[in-house]
Amino acid sequence: MNFGFTEEQELLRDQVRKFMQGACPLSTVRKIMATDDGGSRALWQQMAELGWLGLVVPEAYGGLGLKWVDLTVVLEETGRGLSPLPLVSHTLAAVALARCGTEAQKKAWLPALASGSTTATLALYDEPNWIHPDAVTLTAKNRRLVGSKPFVADAGVADLFVIACRTEAGLSLALVPRDATGVAVALQPIMDRTKRMGTVTLDVVLAPDQFMALADDDLAYLTDCGAVAVTAELVGAAEATLAMTTAYAKQRVQFGNLIGKYQGVKHRLAEMFVDIESFKSLLYYAAWTVDDAPHELPRAASLAKAYASDAAARIGIDGVQLHGAIGFTAEYDVQLYLKRTKWARPAYGDSDHHYERVAALGGL
Amino acid sequence: MNFGFTEEQELLRDQVRKFMQGACPLSTVRKIMATDDGGSRALWQQMAELGWLGLVVPEAYGGLGLKWVDLTVVLEETGRGLSPLPLVSHTLAAVALARCGTEAQKKAWLPALASGSTTATLALYDEPNWIHPDAVTLTAKNRRLVGSKPFVADAGVADLFVIACRTEAGLSLALVPRDATGVAVALQPIMDRTKRMGTVTLDVVLAPDQFMALADDDLAYLTDCGAVAVTAELVGAAEATLAMTTAYAKQRVQFGNLIGKYQGVKHRLAEMFVDIESFKSLLYYAAWTVDDAPHELPRAASLAKAYASDAAARIGIDGVQLHGAIGFTAEYDVQLYLKRTKWARPAYGDSDHHYERVAALGGL
Amino acid sequence: MDFELSASEEAFRQEVRDFLKENLPPPRERGPNFLSEWLTKVRAKRWVGFSWPKEVGGGGGSIIEQAILKEEMALAKAPPLGMSMMGLAWVGPGIIQYGTDEQKQRFIPDILDSKVTWCTGYSEPNHGSDLAAIQTKAELTADGKHYVVNGQKIWTSLAPWADWIILLTRTQFDVDVKHKGITCLLVDMKTPGVEVRPIENMAGDRHFAEVFFTNAKVPVENRLGKEGEGWMVTVSALANERSSIGEVTQLYDKLDTLRDLVKRSKKNGQPASNDQSTRRRIAEFEAKIAAMKYNGMRYLTKQLKGEPLSSETSVNKLHRASLEIDMDDFAVALSGAAGLELAGGAEAVDKGKWAKASLGWPNVVIGGGTPNIQRNIIAERILGLPKDGSD
Amino acid sequence: MDFELSASEEAFRQEVRDFLKENLPPPRERGPNFLSEWLTKVRAKRWVGFSWPKEVGGGGGSIIEQAILKEEMALAKAPPLGMSMMGLAWVGPGIIQYGTDEQKQRFIPDILDSKVTWCTGYSEPNHGSDLAAIQTKAELTADGKHYVVNGQKIWTSLAPWADWIILLTRTQFDVDVKHKGITCLLVDMKTPGVEVRPIENMAGDRHFAEVFFTNAKVPVENRLGKEGEGWMVTVSALANERSSIGEVTQLYDKLDTLRDLVKRSKKNGQPASNDQSTRRRIAEFEAKIAAMKYNGMRYLTKQLKGEPLSSETSVNKLHRASLEIDMDDFAVALSGAAGLELAGGAEAVDKGKWAKASLGWPNVVIGGGTPNIQRNIIAERILGLPKDGSD
Q1: Nearest to D127 among B130, B254, B350 (CB)
Q2: Which of A122, A359, C193, D163 is deepest in the core (most CB within 10 A)?
Q3: What is the CATH number assigned to the segment(s) C118-229?
Q4: Closest alpha carbon to A265 in C129, D20, B232
């Protein structure tokens, strides 16, 4: 038994952290936030060269063939730095292809995703707050996909949309290149500009090999992977919030004392630490199950995401509040993290969804 | 508009408070707790002489003809002193008679209740946590009442049981004297020995004038009155807990400081104050509606009891916890209040019941 | 205990309602001159500065009538009674209590006539909530005719639009307690050496500003109260907050909107109004708002009886802080991914108003003294617990 | 990251299971001699003092094996491994680390053989959690052969049954910091001048006691460590708490019982298992317990790597405190009026066990350092925030 990281994983963590601090600090994040599409080709290319875009893609398809525990290490650090780059959605699209694609489809797409020559995103549900096969309503008839997919992550920069839909054969994933005729993308204004979402409007006829079958199990698996990935980024984001707020409490004087001396502040920071430690532990176990105990994944992912969703949302708000007025100015960074926690809360299921699932899995 | 008490009401409050401090201090309460039936005839007689047993009974039937706002003043103080005397259940029985009884029944019973020559109690539901007409299941056929009534308040000392049941005519209240043949009372061990409950086992044929019709509205009204009465006692009990805990925080030194200097303690005490002030205000409004705006009673009673149930239970626990180890010793009084708050939580509906009702009344 | 109004109070309520019926057209029917006409009319009714003494041009209204007026205005979603919120809330009462006759004549009518708007220069960068620690310096010139002000204020709301500022300055630095040596000045924002820099908040608004003072000269006759008495003047002015009746009405209104959102929403594929925890959250909000309402009435009754109010208003401030944060956040969370979209979003809920509001709470929550400060006030002033820190 | 056990660890788990299968009959089949036989058998396996060095008679077991042993014992609801809980948890490790050879020979075998039980005399009436402030006085006699002890301890758990007490005393009063001048003594409870007065708690139990010392004479050879080093000895002993694997197993077990209660219960006339908020509460409990489990494993892994553990164990202590309070209270509330009945009540739920347990939490919650102290520990030792108070 070993509930820790290997030396290689620690090196990977250092590498990502240095990348975020050096190449993508918050000043750069803000510049990317100000762009129209929310992207940065240059930084994405650097990530591609470091191999991170195909981290969990099998080596046979050009990836590094690492595990979700390794991915977790990367995502904690991109979350800590509030990375606006589409690593999560891109990875999930690759995971969808690896799981649901035919050998030919995998060969056709995965190497391009792993190398970054194609940027992909995964779009599952058509309802804003319902995680269920019935919440996939977009329909293709005779391979013609007409309608729109809302809430598509990183829609501004993706070249390939992996879109859940219904076909005559049942639930499917459609592989839709952005540049196909009949595809239009409209980015939506959302509160977290590091996580752009968009609506993809479609009227497009696809080839047979642009569809993959999506069993209910696959849909649940991809959702769980999404929950794990979002939670991993939340660990980093929440730790960054705690670190900023703790540092502030150590230098801000009010009523003649450092505010960090008051238990009203200390205890809230301690509770943040308790929560972060806890959903981090739940996350690590969930990440491990993806590759090593997939039958445990549903419960593990739900426990982690349920705990993280609410705890991080509270941490986001309290991080701002404990800073006092400075915390909610646009130029101060802590409010960016608040927006990230609000973004992450419903992503791949909120706490109501996941706790309900835990109860059901527990036999209630 | 005047959301305050009259001079007469303040005098009444002083009178009750002095009674509790002088005649029924906590040392006396503990003696009564140690008795088998939980009663004290002598103290009950004193209360009777002061007119409190018929406070809201109309003057025509020997009562003082006062309002529920006046009763609230009395119950706040009996709650503060953790009175084990059956004033709440006795008053509710009288209210049931006054509302549901015929003129003859009122004449027959109310003067005896107002004078204290008969001690009565009201027993409505047969289910431990369901407030609904269907939760009245005890049945009388041909005026023969057979079965048992659980959770009867102050069953050890009541001479008259006013018991909800079903008859051929629908929901009814049966007037069952304790000394009738076929009535057996078994007190149950419960955690708050100042609020004894018992099971009344029945196999008894009653006269026609021992039944009163109980419309669904009446049942709801009596339940609301119960909720108001319990909340009034909770205000006093919670204030006593806050006062004891505040006093302790002002004299207990830990780590070189009064514990009342630490925000971890101060802020929790401040939150107790906020909660008590708030359910007290909700209570006063609810008490006013009983006599002056009965159409507003359901929502007002539910808001007050819902808020009080949970807030007081937290105050009970935290009162003990903030005292540290001394707080949970049997000889220290604060733990008696914790038990009272746990007793009061489900009485006449817990917060789940009442908040659900508020939501429904609000149109959801 | 009596929740009925007296006949004359009912008559006053009716008067307000009649006025509103006649003078408050629906938003779409309001012309370009509507607002100035409105202000003229409510001024003519003496409803601006309603509780101020008649001698200075106020309405001389009773506390109850004021509550009725606020409630009806909030129910009708009427425009404000006068444009200088700060002038009416704090500056005017401060001048009435501590001002010279000249100051009253010069400043009060302009506030009542909505000709001049005010902002309040209290907080400074290094001691937000700790007002008494201010460092902005005011030095009397040798001829005793002016104060020369140097320093910086921050979180000054409305500063970008205000004509005048009520300013806390320090005229003495070698004091034994920090509350001494503070002097209150009334300063024209057009004074040379006064510079305003708006601050953008996380919701993208610019209601607040930094205000810099560089050798700004303020005539000595614009000092409010005596030199060194500024703390007392300020505390009295801040104490002028009355009952929160209007706030409660707004919160009830918001709760209605929220209930309506619930009725229109789905959650997990079902109507959200069937969702038990959603129903309970709405009911809990209602309980807190109702508690604020009846708390406010109890405290109002205390005032009516002439009993001094302690710091009970902190109770409602704490409720309001949690409601401000929680109600919008609840609406955002209820709507899942759609709740994140701002105005213009294809799926934005109610044009993104909840999303935006969920980023706007610090204006209220932090601006009025943080919740932790309110808890300290209750603990120390009401419960009598010792002060914390090394003060 | 790897949650699989190694082959030898799996073999050890199997060994424990086999042992339990053979030697732990169901409760009804246990004879009057069962417990003493059990103790003899686990002693023979060297599972008492499992992590202690073999030289002193311990098992020399690894941290992982210890976790496995604890987990399997908890799963099987086996009796304890040895009767002296305190002796095994704190006193033994303290003697092993600081004791003389004579002390080791004299005390350790008796602990391992369950011949002697210990209690811990730390808290005093006026400074419960502030152990370093103790005032119980120990004076060396003129001949240097004895300490004469005067003072009082309180909240001494198990004192009514213990044979010996490990006692913190003050041998020096004029010290610059209160942690100095403290000396640790091992005291026979039968010493003249030692008096035990049990304390009844609100649940009606008498696990705790006051212990009074009146001129109690303690041989100087029963001093543990040097004079004045008592604080260090105590801190080391308290640090000997290992991972909370056994606790987690117990909590999972309790959660199962609670789930079972939900399945048997009705709420508002419906099966409680249909109630959304009830379902969520159960799931939240599971999340906290699972968090404790994986937190514990992470901290265990740290230990295995030889990294020093900071105060991370406070994280699980806080979870445990809230679970101890909330789970029983939830069960009581779930059952409405029936939840209030104690053992013997006609409608008592599960023979009143939840009702009773809901009054028993302070033993755990306050005994192990209050939640506020744990929060301070995290804030100060892990986050590096300043100490509060005037310390």
Answers
A1: B254
A2: A122
A3: 2.40.110.10
A4: C129
